[in-house]
Design a protein that fits this description.
By secondary structure, the chain is an alpha+beta fold. It is 32% helix and 22% strand. Strands 28, 29, 30, 31, 32, 33, 34, 35, 36 and 37 form a 10-stranded mixed β-sheet that branches. It has a 6-stranded mixed β-sheet with strand order 1-2-4-3-5-10, sandwiched between helices. Strand 11 (315-317) and strand 12 form a beta hairpin. Helix 6 packs across helix 12 and helix 9 packs across helix 12 (326-346).
């Protein structure tokens, strides 16, 4: 007994001495921790310091942001575990059938992610304190647990917020919500450099932060993943269990164990008397969150939400009269983080056993998904699958029976040409099922985000979901052919956004490019409307013209097809007035208060990353006739323009359009035109039938009011539309296009103008749409153009650039820029 006490005292003494050798956050940073926001470089420095002074932490830099800030993860565990970390990792992946060694059964893998939203800034502070406490107070848990901490998923957004706050804050905490330090400017700290919401990007991986993080995540595939957030400052703390709807693929164990973690969190919160809630608001359906994506990869994925957000600053007075401080917020997050690690340590064997079951259970409705279409769309999908480490092949079957997506029913798809076959009989089978499912099953329509995302629709590919395994072979990339002799012109297809990237690259290199608005057959090549034509005669000013064309086309993985004459065997000739040059345009993007930062960011990302095309961002306050005269195209992102475009400014805008300007209007920006007599767009109104019967007023139950409201909503649902492929806005498309509709606003067909993409039949393909809003969608305009003098307005009622993942919509935007004249 005396020996045990002496050993315990010696151990306690050792831990105390060891902890004294590591500086606390306050000691290292030089101010009481929680009294200031820690800038990102200081966060990086502190974790580097911990790695240099502890045998229990290893630091790995996994990338850089667009603004060159460091992305890193810290691995925290016992010294022996870290010395054998690679062996443990491979054993863990063996349980998921992703490696081939002996399986792991006694170690838990916990990944804690902080500050995906930059202005939810207490999260990163909590990561610092959590790491310190694990190293100094909770080492016993590290014997059988590997804790992975990502201190800041969004350094660019966080520093935008922190730097702004430090510039405007008072010397002493000002808790008044009306103070400037509690009201961020138009571009807030929440999104990343391109103003994307990184918490909606886990599955789509459009952003560089997501792409680099996923490489590390796929190397570890943790048992538990927690995403630390902040919500409005008057709310209590939220932790799991999550709200309904749960996606049907989530297992009973995943449901139950997040509940067990929630009980452990509640134990600590109850001890302090802190308020919290569970089972409300935050569901597990949309696959691209920091809780759902890990869940669909076998983890216990959870969101923790602390009150605060960008309004809270260092301290803010709540509606209840209390002052919520940064210290409070980081303490709450630290408590739940440590509580989660504790539960993992206590249940390591169970977590491993259930993790193995998750990947061994392959009772899928569909065994294979086969998609076909042009090679560019196929290759775009392959890039996404590669990021998720999903395996695919190519089938030689002449036809496949199953659910045919573009017909919205069971049938047969004839397979020819380029195709891709994806089997669910692989480790990522459940993720595949979620991403490709034709219709998302929604048990509860009260959900937090869009309700449909099926990739065949998003990438514009003909597809079939088969209940039988479809034999396939490894898919190979096609080779780029080269031709120089007897060339009259090089010709390129126009049916994918990558073709627009090729065009802009040509234009950047001063290569003159033409396009045809009518089909032609020439030199055994079939040129559809929109095809790109690069003639030798147009480009005689360029030295090494052929080599330059080959170099650029190879960069974009485009085949160098060519014609040998200007005389066509069918259709128009090269000298036809239907074959016109595509001139480089001067583009302006409007930004400022009232405009959606997300939509503004989507436009910026599209121009910079998808096209690499120059543009100028102009402020709403600077919009004038003089400024407009410097541009050919004005892009109006989604937003509320009633306070931006007054009657006088609308007249100024119309005058500029009539002289040859072009406006591209997205989403709710169209409302400002629909409400003006200057333009021909009209909001669609539903005709109400006159009720002649006398009925008693319907009793309304207050508790059901929220459910009544959703009958008037559309939450990211897919509809099938018709495309006028003869119009330049529709070049490169088939007659059917599946649009992702994000809201209920709709517009009548244009009486003067061109109705290029229309929703003729309001049949819902996938997702949720309220019963009271479907009638208004029938016979409505999706994309259209209106001529005004020598210029045009292009109305995009739906947003084809939404979150950058609806790949098949992007060509419409390219058409609006380059094809519509």
């Amino acid at each position: 007994m005396r020996f045990k006490i002496s050993l315990a005292l010696a151990l306690a003494s050792f831990i105390t001495v060891f902890s004294q050798n590591i500086k606390s956050p306050s000691q290292f940073l030089g101010y009481p921790f929680g009294s200031q926001f820690t800038r990102h470089h200081e966060v990086v420095d502190y974790f580097k310091y911990l790695a240099e002074n502890s045998d229990n932490l290893v630091l790995e830099n996994y990338g850089k942001t667009n603004e060159r800030r460091t992305l890193q993860v810290a691995f925290i565990s016992s010294k022996s575990n870290l010395e054998n970390i690679e062996s443990i990792r491979k054993q863990h992946l063996t349980n998921a059938n992703l490696a081939n060694t002996s399986g792991l059964n006694d170690k838990a893998i916990v990944w804690l992610s902080y500050n995906v939203h930059g202005n939810e800034a207490s999260a990163t502070e909590a990561s610092i304190l959590t790491a310190y406490k694990l190293l100094t107070e909770k080492q016993a848990w590290l014997e059988n647990t590997i804790v992975i901490i990502d201190p800041c998923l969004n350094p660019d957004g966080r520093d935008r917020y922190v730097n702004w706050f430090n510039q405007v804050k008072n010397r002493n905490i000002n808790a008044n919500p009306l103070a400037a330090e509690h009201n961020e400017p138009w571009i807030q700290g929440r999104p990343n450099h391109y103003l994307f919401d990184l918490n909606r990007d886990w599955a789509w991986t459009t952003q560089v932060e997501s792409q680099q993080r996923l490489k590390v995540y796929n190397k570890w595939m943790p048992h538990i993943h927690v995403d630390f957030h902040e919500q409005y400052y008057n709310n209590p703390y939220y932790f799991a269990p999550a709200a309904e709807p749960f996606h049907e693929i989530i297992t009973e164990f995943q449901r139950d164990f997040q509940g067990e973690i929630g009980k452990n969190n509640a134990k600590y919160f109850d001890k302090e008397g802190w308020l919290y809630f569970t089972k409300e608001s935050f569901d597990l359906l949309y696959p691209s969150y920091g809780d759902t994506y890990p869940t669909f990869n076998g983890a216990i994925g959870m969101t923790y939400e602390q009150a605060g957000h960008g309004r809270a600053g260092l301290g803010i007075k709540t509606n209840e009269g209390d002052v919520l401080t940064l210290k409070d917020r980081l303490t709450h997050h630290t408590t739940t983080g440590l509580s989660t690690v504790e539960m993992a340590s206590k249940n390591a064997s169970k977590l491993n056993a259930e993790f193995t079951k998750y990947f061994n259970n392959r009772s899928f409705k569909y065994k294979s998904y086969v998609l076909q279409g042009n090679s560019d769309k196929i290759n775009a999908l392959k890039k996404l699958l590669d990021r998720h480490e999903i395996k695919y092949g190519k089938t030689n079957s002449p036809s496949v029976t199953g659910f045919v997506y573009n017909k919205n029913k069971n049938g047969q798809l004839k397979v020819n040409g380029d195709n891709i076959s994806i089997s669910t009989n692989q480790p990522k089978g459940k993720l595949i099922e979620v991403l490709f499912e034709p219709k998302t099953r929604i048990k509860d329509s009260l959900t937090y985000d869009i309700t449909s995302w099926s990739l065949p629709y998003a990438y514009g590919l003909n597809a079939v979901a088969s209940k039988k395994e479809v034999a396939s072979t490894t898919a190979n990339s096609s080779n780029n052919t080269v031709a120089k002799n007897n060339v009259y012109a090089y010709v390129f297809d126009w049916n994918h956004i990558s073709d627009a990237a090729l065009l802009t690259d040509f234009l950047q290199h001063k290569i003159r490019v033409r396009t045809t608005s009518k089909a032609m057959d020439n030199s055994n090549q079939k040129l559809k409307p929109g095809s790109l034509i690069v003639t030798k005669r147009d480009n005689k000013h360029l030295k090494n013209f052929d080599d330059l064309v080959f170099k650029i086309s190879k960069k974009h993985q485009k085949e160098n097809k060519h014609i040998t004459t200007g005389l066509s065997t069918n259709g128009v000739d090269m000298g036809s007035y239907s074959v016109t040059e595509i001139k480089k345009k001067k583009i302006a993007v409007l930004g400022g208060k009232g405009i959606s930062t997300l939509s503004y960011g989507e436009v910026r990302y599209f121009l910079e990353q998808d096209l690499n095309y120059d543009y100028s961002a102009i402020r709403t306050s600077d919009l004038s006739a003089q400024v407009l005269s410097k541009f050919n195209i004005l892009i109006l992102p989604n937003g509320s323009y009633s306070g931006i475009l007054s009657k006088d400014k609308l007249k100024t805008l119309k005058s500029w359009i009539s002289k040859g300007g072009k406006v591209i209007s997205i989403g709710y920006a169209n409302q400002v035109f629909a409400n003006s007599k200057e333009f021909g767009l009209t909001t669609k109104q539903t005709k109400k039938k006159k009720d002649t019967t006398k009925t008693e007023p319907k009793k309304r139950v207050y508790a059901e009011s929220e459910r009544e409201q959703i009958k008037n909503l559309i939450t990211g649902a897919i509809f099938k539309t018709h495309v006028d492929t003869t119009h330049p806005l529709g070049f490169g498309y088939d007659s059917d296009y599946f649009t992702l509709k994000l809201g209920t606003s709709s517009f009548d067909y244009l009486k003067r103008g061109h109705n290029v993409v229309t929703l003729d039949d309001n049949t819902l393909i996938a997702g949720f749409a309220g019963s009271k809003t479907l009638t208004k969608q029938k016979k409505s305009l999706i994309f259209g153009t209106e001529n005004i003098g020598r210029g045009q307005v292009i109305y995009l009622a739906d947003n084809p650039l939404f979150r950058g993942f609806w790949d098949n919509g992007k060509l419409f935007f390219a058409n609006a820029l380059f094809m519509v004249k």
